Amino acid sequence: MSAPRLQMEHVCCHFEGREVVCGIDLTVRAGEVLCLLGPSGCGKSTTLRMIAGIERPSRGIIRADGEVLSDATTHLPPEARGIGLIFQDFALFPHLSVAQNIAFGLRGTAAQNRARVDELLERVDLQGYGDTAPHMLSGGEQQRVALARALAPRPRIMLMDEPFSGLDNRLRDGIRDETLALLKEEGTAVVLVTHEPEEAMRMADQIALMRDGGVVQTGAPYNIYTSPCDKDAAAFFSDINVISGEVHGALIETPFGQFLAPGVPDGGLVDIVFRPQHVKIDFDRGGRGPNPTPQDGVPALGHVKRARFMGHESLVEFRMDFDGGIVKVTVPAVFLPKPGTPLWLTIRRDRCFVFPNRP
Ligand SMILES: Nc1ncnc2c1ncn2[C@@H]1O[C@H](COP(=O)(O)OP(=O)(O)OP(=O)(O)O)[C@@H](O)[C@H]1O
């Protein structure tokens, strides 16, 4: 197999003696989109800037197609890396026309450059806009010019820092999908920074979930969503419910039945974590509760605290009789029971995660 387009091995970055990013190991292949996802300040932009060559790693190796871009002795400048950049503010040159903006990084003859600019104008659907000034364009059109400019020199890697966050909601989905299709066609390896889980789920082939300067989990969106590495990783993608319990004989007893906690010693504390869409409300048995089943376990009684319609689903909060705690449930329909209504709940046992309880 060919060398990965981008490879980072144990990469760290210090600022003023403080390690803000450390131990980053990532691999991105041609045509693949990796999203760096995480809360503000976790080190996403610093990681991107190290790949771009704007920051120098304090440790580790960054390679593109097997060639060293940064290590202990080498640090190629940004312009020698074959990397394209797109940032949130597009940063188009206001005094240059659209065509001149796109041609900015091209090094060929005038005829070659004109042909490449025309090809890109067509690909981003802006034929006839070559002589226009950037400020005459809408936000979405400017974003497409920025994409064309970044793609023009055929970069092997494209780095994008929150590139869609300045766009109108109605435009964003379409532009995201078009951008992705174009980048895939060009075979560019993409590293995209975002703090929005939905954007990462929509765009990424792989998500690298970051926290406190490190990558805590890497995987396909589906795998990260269905097998989060810990409670915080689960909570990054949706609301979660948590029931805490003590382990005895590798089992935890809860009002929803028993759960397995293999490898946790007696007396150890664990959190059982489940998403609101994996709670079932029993509508059928008039307050008697459903029969326990191996899949759904034991029903527990709660009283509606609050119900809200969210557009494509209803979110119902229950105060549970067993401990007074709250369990959130989503129902993919209009379901707005009155506060105080008693209902039995079961949880999808195959969708529960059991994690050691760390304060
Ligand atoms: N030039 C710098 N000098 C000192 N500290 C810095 C510098 N750049 C970033 N940091 C610090 O490094 C940490 C990571 O910042 P970074 O911008 O990489 O995070 P981020 O995940 O991209 O956040 P955001 O989503 O808010 O942009 C932060 O604590 C930040 O204050």
SSE topology sketch:
Elements: E1 6-15, E2 18-28, E3 33-37, H1 44-52, E4 59-64, E5 67-70, E6 83-87, H2 98-103, H3 110-123, H4 139-151, E7 157-161, H5 169-186, E8 189-194, H6 197-203, E9 206-211, E10 214-219, H7 221-226, H8 231-237, E11 241-246, E12 251-254, E13 257-260, E14 269-274, E15 279-282, E16 300-309, E17 314-320, E18 326-331, E19 342-347, E20 353-356
Parallel strand pairs: 3-8, 3-9, 6-7, 7-8
Antiparallel strand pairs: 1-2, 1-4, 4-5, 9-10, 11-14, 12-13, 14-20, 15-19, 16-17, 16-19, 17-18
Helix pairs in contact: 3-4, 4-5
The structure holds adenosine-5'-triphosphate.
Residues 15-16, 20, 38, 40-46, 195 line the site of adenosine-5'-triphosphate.
InterPro entries: AAA+_ATPase, ABC_SmlMolc_Importer, ABC_transporter-like_ATP-bd, ABC_transporter-like_CS, ABC_transpr_FbpC, Mo/tungstate-bd_C_term_dom, P-loop_NTPase, Transp-assoc_OB_typ2
GO molecular function: ABC-type ferric iron transporter activity; ATP binding; ATP hydrolysis activity
GO biological process, one term: quaternary ammonium group transport
Question: Overview of this structure, please?
Answer:
The protein contains 8 helices and 20 strands. Helix content is 22%, strand content 34%. The strands form 5 sheets. A 6-stranded mixed beta sheet has the order 6-7-8-3-9-10, with helices on both faces. A 5-stranded antiparallel beta sheet has the order 15-19-16-17-18, with no helix packed on it. The chain has a 4-stranded antiparallel beta sheet with strand order 2-1-4-5, with helices on one face. A hairpin with a 4-residue loop joins strand 16 and strand 17. Helix 3 (110-123) packs across helix 4 and helix 4 packs parallel to helix 5. The chain is an alpha+beta fold and 359 residues long. It has 2 domains: 6-235, P-loop containing nucleotide triphosphate hydrolases (Rossmann fold, 3-Layer(aba) Sandwich), CATH 3.40.50.300; 240-356, OB fold (Dihydrolipoamide Acetyltransferase, E2P) (Beta Barrel), CATH 2.40.50.140. The two termini are 44 Å apart. The structure holds adenosine-5'-triphosphate. Adenosine-5'-triphosphate binds next to helix 1.
